[in-house]
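HOLO CASE FILE
Compound: EPU
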Amino acid sequence: MASFEITGGKPLIGTVRVSGAKNEALKVIPMAVLLEQPVKITNVPDIVDVRNQIKIIEDLGAQVSFDNDVLFVDPTGINTPDISEKAKKLRASIVFIGPVLARFKKVSCPHPGGCIIGVRPIDTHTDAFRQLGAQIEEDEENLKISLEVTEEKNIGLIEQSVSATENLILFASGSNFPITINNCAIEPEVLDLIRIVESAGAKVERLSERSFKISRGESFSASEIEIMPDRIEAGTFAIAMLATGGHGEILNIRKDDLLSFTDLLKKTGVQFTLEDNRMEIKETKSFEPFELVTAPHPGFPTDLQSPMALIAAKADGKSRIHEALYENRLQYLKELQEMGLEVEFESNKIAYITGPTVFKPTEIQSLDLRSGITLVIAALMTDGQTIIKDVEIIDRGYENLEEKIKKLGGQIKRIGTDGTKTDRG
Ligand code: EPU
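Model generated. Tokens follow.
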């Protein structure tokens, strides 16, 4: 496993251009299963999760090339409904179920299981397919589903799950009979995926805020698809600049995707300007304590909850953080405690942070993607050298992280498993 050696003490200043959205790219790759012709997908972040998702579609029989954030997928050779064992490497592989099921009327895949941030059952997915008439065989290891829809259907999701909504959108895009999906998640990545399936030929009708009626159109093909900017990466770099006492501009954003985040930033006293595709962060010296509760969109995004704790650490007073979605997503606060954070837990989902904190360097392990990036920023806030271990978990979701941090003036080095220092960007 590799580590980061981070020397803190310098404010991050300058310009950063955010990459394509991980959580959209991971769904557009499965969508290609349904396409009748090859597709070019642009602005695809070169991250470990994307590389794993690509391996899964290759195992299904697709021809793929990926270079310089441009992904070509030729799905015409896809010839099996059996999703390979590589699906175990990432939960987003579950979104292959919808399109494979639509194409072959059956699918088998390894059971995705829970993960460090929560139990993450897949009931919302399986219940929705059952409502459509699916036969499902499920054990701890595997999932087998068969389903043929022969009439119009109307179903409701148990909860507003992002990936369950996307799975059903993709299934419905390959269905000859219209499927109305109620209680959908409406995260920006979901709405953008709907725009993409519509442009590929699916018939989509938005019946109400969270209800969509979707079916296959005459044909389903797209010559080029562009992945939207990553709103979580944008928010993360805004926080990194603020938390290190820096300032700068963040390019390749979509203003509307960031409003729940910037509404909270405003309450903390941060100075910034937000334009349609650019955000400017001004140097901010003092921060107000705040209350944060995560919620499905348009609420505050859970994926920005952990970096936001660093603003709480800067604020003068007590902030309250409530992670309402995942049961284990406050674990990183214990790591930050080792670095000097003053934190009290009311429960596994609610914590109080009292600032201001001066973080001290240490040797620490990154637990999951979002807590990993939080430790990276905390390390940049110290006055010394921090070692963060097991950084492969951070490579799952941030493209060119070291390069971007170094361009802003931060000092970060990757230490390989053999102890060698590299400047891999
Ligand atoms: N949940 C609720 N209430 C709801 C909806 C969800 O409590 O109305 C809970 C679920 O029970 C679960 C959690 O929220 O514990 C997330 O559920 P969801 O099914 O929406 O998550 P997902 O589709 O598996 C995607 C992202 C996650 C992101 C969540 C929530 C991908 C590949 N993953 O997961 O991203 O946290 O939506 O926005 O799209 C990450 O990027 O680090 C990450 C974990």
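CASE NOTES: Residues 48-60 form the longest helix (13 residues). The first strand starts at residue 3 and ends at 7.
CLOSED: yes
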